[in-house]
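The protein record quoted for completeness.
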Amino acid sequence: MDKIVDVIFSIAFLDSVIRVTTPILFATMAILVSDRAGVLNIGVEGTMLVSALAGVIGSAFTQNAWLGLLIAILTGMAYSGILAVCHLKLGTDVFLSAIALNLMASGLTVFVLYLLTGDKGVSTKLPSKVIPNVHIPVIKDIPVLGDILSGQNALTYIAIITLILLSIFLYKTRTGTYIRAAGELPQAVETAGVSVKKIRMLALLLSGAIAGMGGAFMSMGYLSMFTKDMVAGRGFIALAAEAMGRGLPGLSLLSSLLFGFADALASSLQIFNIPSQLTRLVPYLLTIVALTIYAAGEQKKRKKL
């Protein structure tokens, strides 16, 4: 037990918590913005996977990591755009459509990868680029804190900036107010002469763009290649993180860190010869426990009203 505590309070572990929290935070923000508009995007898992491959292909063909990131973002918007068209234009159920897109993403990415490389599992044959790490001046020289906060991948800092900008956008701009109103009181939006469908379409496209950055981090930051099904349920974990964060950016950051901690712990426990099949259950068990506690708390509040 003492060895596990030593691992948890080590610099390497805290560094890894930030690293593994990054894709969960991107996915949580993607779900948050769609949920606030009243059209929960559970297709983030598939969107991230498709964007992860698009980023690798884009950076390989342009030989530029930032253009690869841009292509991943545009791909995320296009994939979420399919969900928006299916639900808002064609009237399909948003959850069933999102599930279909999640299932399609796994096969589609393998198919495209096979067409380009002849390989069905990894993209090592593609000369893709990676998003660089960033060392922050001044902070990097601070003992302990500098080792944890500085030297992270650029997309980790972009995730924090995106969270701040998203908070400002939702609470300080007119369009952000319309998005929140579309989820809370859509009749008021229609009364103001604004189309709820257009607002929700915008929210889904924004959700796709943020999910695209999360996918790019997986294949161009977390790893330096694309691998089959590499998102590994982080889009679904983000659903729990967003629910626990009650749709608020600040609380969603804290809940994302909690799941990032569980993910990092699962990896660290493997050095104690605990079977990986068992340690990999940690984040998902935490998801179930956290949602159970959250649901119990919400039920208790409703009874008091």
